[in-house]
Amino acid sequence: MKLLVGLGNPGNKYKETRHNVGFRFLDLLAKHEGLRFDAAPRFHAEIAVWNRNGEKITLIKPQTFMNNSGESIAPLARYYQVEEKDVIVIYDDLDLPSRKLRIKKGGGHGGHNGLRSMHAHMPTTDYVRVKVGIGRPVHGDISAWVLGRADEADRADEACLFSALLDEIDSLLNGDTDTAANRIHMATKTK
User: Fold this and answer.
1) Cβ(85)–Cβ(77) below 8 Å
2) Sheet harboring 2-6: ordered strands across?
3) Got the DSSP string for 55-93?
4) Would you tell me how many other CB atoms lie within 10 Å of the CB of residue 86?
5) Structural domains in the chain plus CATH codes
6) Are 136 and 52 in contact (CB under 8 A)?
7) Nearest Cα to 111, choosing from 138, 141, 142, 137?
8) Is 112 a known active-site residue?
9) Is 0.90 surpassed by the pTM of this model?
């Protein structure tokens, strides 16, 4: 079993913000696979269960707000008895430009408050991270940037990245992160 987590903030107010790329990707995957998210109030999350080639993948959208994501994810990992290495987290990254994606296992939180919360609540940081680039503002407040709506060009870049990530979801879930990352890079470079 694996947990596939998208980070974001709950509610329509945040639905289209840069910070919610994790939620948007899971929504796209759920639609593609005919899955439906249900409320899991005990875990402060919305979850969908995907039976993929005989393996159970639980899609998770924490409803705790970004800065408290670990309060939802850690109890779910314990409940399902999933080790950190079988947790994959998709989230926004300010240090990557739009249309860029990086996949990495383990490491620090890099200043991302969602990851900071996960680090505080999970036994190790050995989970897989899928960082979706949202770029940095040239001027202005970073909070306003991540909680702002992406422009048309950024949304087109996101759609391109999501399409490539969807094509490589099997590689990612099978643990072949290098292959997934390389193919996504090639696919988004040519479009």
Assistant:
1) no
2) 38-40, 45-52, 55-62, 2-6, 87-93, 128-133, 101-105
3) EEEEEEEE-S-GGGTHHHHHHHHHHTT--GGGEEEEEEE
4) 19
5) 2-190 (3.40.50.1470)
6) no
7) 142
8) no
9) yes
Tens digit of each residue's pLDDT (9 = 90 or more) over 8-31: 999 999 999 999 999 999 999 999
Q: Which residues contact 68 (CB under 8 A, 6 or more apart)?
A: 62, 117
Helix (H) or strand (E) holding 45: strand 45-52
Rounded distance, CA 32 to CA 15, Å? 19
Q: What is the spatial distance between Cα 13 and Cα 21, in angstroms, rounded to a whole number?
A: 14
Q: Phi, psi at residue 56, to the nearest 5°?
A: -90, 125
What is the four-CA torsion angle of 87, 103, 111, 5, rounded to 10 degrees?
A: -30
Residue 37's CB is within 10 A of a number of other CB atoms, namely 17
Amino acid identity of 183?
R
- Give which of 19, 29, 178 is closest to 104, Cα–Cα: 178
9/68 Cα distance (integer angstroms)? 10
pLDDT in tens, 25-57: 999 999 999 999 999 999 999 999 999 989 999
Choose, from 19, 32, 112, 139, the residue flagged as catalytic. Answer: 19
Residue 2 vs residues 26, 43, 133, 160: alpha-carbon distances, Å: 14, 16, 24, 25
Residues 6+ positions from 35 with CB-CB distance below 8 Å: 29, 48, 49, 50, 59
- In tens, the pLDDT along 89-105 reads 999 999 999 889 999 99
